[in-house]
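Hi D.,

Good news: the full-assembly prediction came through. Inputs first.
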Amino acid sequence: MGIRRGYRARPLELLAEWFIFGVSFSAMVLVFLIFVFVTREALPVVFGQVNNAVRQPVIPVEQMDNLPHGQLGKYLGLDARQLAQMDRETLKELMAVRVEAAQKVPDDKDSGINTLAWRQMFLPHQWTGYERPSYIWQPVSDIPKFNIIPLLVGSLKTTLVALMLAVPLALAASLYVSQLASNRLREWLKPAVELLAGIPSVVAGFFALIVMASFLKSVFGYESRLNAFVAGVALALAVVPVVFSIAEDALTGVPRSYTQAALALGSTRWQAAWKVVLPAALPGVFAAVILGFGRAVGETMIVLMASGNASIMSWSLFDSTRTVTATVAAELAETVFGGNHYRVLFLIGALLLVATFITNLAGELIIHRLKKRLEGLA
Amino acid sequence: MSITVNSHPALAGRDLSADAARNAGHPMIETRGLNLYYGPSQALKHISLKVPERVVTAFIGPSGCGKSTLLRCFNRMNDLIDNVRLEGQVLVGGQEIYDPEIDVIELRKRVGMVFQRSNPFPKTIFENVAYGLRLLGVKSKSDLQDRVEKSLRQAALWEEVQDRLHASALGLSGGQQQRLCIARAIAIEPGILLMDEPASALDPIATGKIEELILALKQDFTIVIVTHNMQQAARISDFTAFFYLGELVEYGRTITLFTNPSIKQTEEYVTGRFG
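Then the structure:
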């Protein structure tokens, strides 16, 4: 572990050091393994190695013996061990089944499309019977369609609504509680808001589904009761305590001497809080917002319950919607292990991982720069 | 006009500063029978004193004697502490500052303060000095620049920082930071400057600079300084008040108080026999 002690380690301390090292190391390894696992399951789709077109080339049964080595297994989707266990007759039967299946495929242009190609997953496509090219997520269908855009837009909409509501509220609340409220009030307010964080998201989702959705509909009078807006508002309930708690800590952490100096110069409490304390706490406040974003994007149960869960491509906040997380949660258990649908779900899971990773990284960089500027090093 | 000590039995009714009254101008700060309590404990006991205009007045005494508490009464910084109760009168420029009619924000613009630990804002040097000016509503850039430069010159800091006005104030040395705090306080021309052990966290050279600065500033400002350092009080102040256990023991010309104190306790303290 490379600890330079300069003295002989005491046995108990050595044990404790090794234990702590082991724990932290295994935590890191575990996170890494999760990343590897998620990515691995998605890789065949990422590299375009999967073709899930309904119409696949067919090899007549008679040509079985003419196939080059290894080709037969690949064609039938069997590995070498499975192939070795089967006798000739069974294989022939399987090939006949393939031929039969191919005859049932309708002879239209859609049947030949590989819906797992990148183009199909991200660009609109005009399917037979549609008036214009559309983004469609229909993983269970004659022709499964895996366009991810509706889900990304769904996540984006609910997250934006949640952040637009939660960030100003949480920041205002944290500024009030840390700078303006009396000590006694603060002792009540801070735990009260943080208690919100302890509400299980399924309870928040239930509340949104039953109470908030009806209330908001009667206020705004839109058509579908469950939509991105309702989900966003409910999501804000989960985001507020996270942002509040971190931002409040950051603001309280600003030395009292700054406030005292500002007040002694004739600032009002508000001026001191707004012009001195808030700028000094900016790195921490920014970190709180980033964390809130992570919570909003990653939250599943609330959006699953309150968004209406329809994968419609629409920018309107008042249409039912479905997020990336809700899709994974709702569909993964129903998929064939290792199948196409399964792999696409892992792909969007990996996308989510990458998106939050990039956001956190960018956030860290900005925080680092802000800190440097405050400390007078930049 | 007389500066009397009512609290100390040995001095009841004695006029300590006929001398002071003759030589100094108008009293800028005056307290009358001031009692201050932190919850149940009394921190200031019946303090009555007058601080003359444009001189340096030093408050000395052992830790916990109430000198800083008294200083913070003059710009009502004690308001920020819970459970503080105050009796008696404090007058600044002839005005009762604990009158409910008084706007404490306006008061603090007239009574500047420098703290024990330098506390520049984590902003640029320029913005630190400009902060109070902006509060006063100074908007024009050239006005701001002129007044920032003037304050920094007054605080004897201009030469050192003129080419890095827009660098962070936290990059300055401790002594420079404290002078920046003084520049920030005097930028809004407060008339009165309260200093709470302004040099106690500084090395002797930086302390020397602060002391020089205080002597220069007394032409324009009425300065009240709290200090632990008796040599410092002797060097820079015109008047000295000695506090002990919340009472004002003796108050008079610095030279008298240090060379010929009328109270035994004062003598013991200034000669270093206790405290």
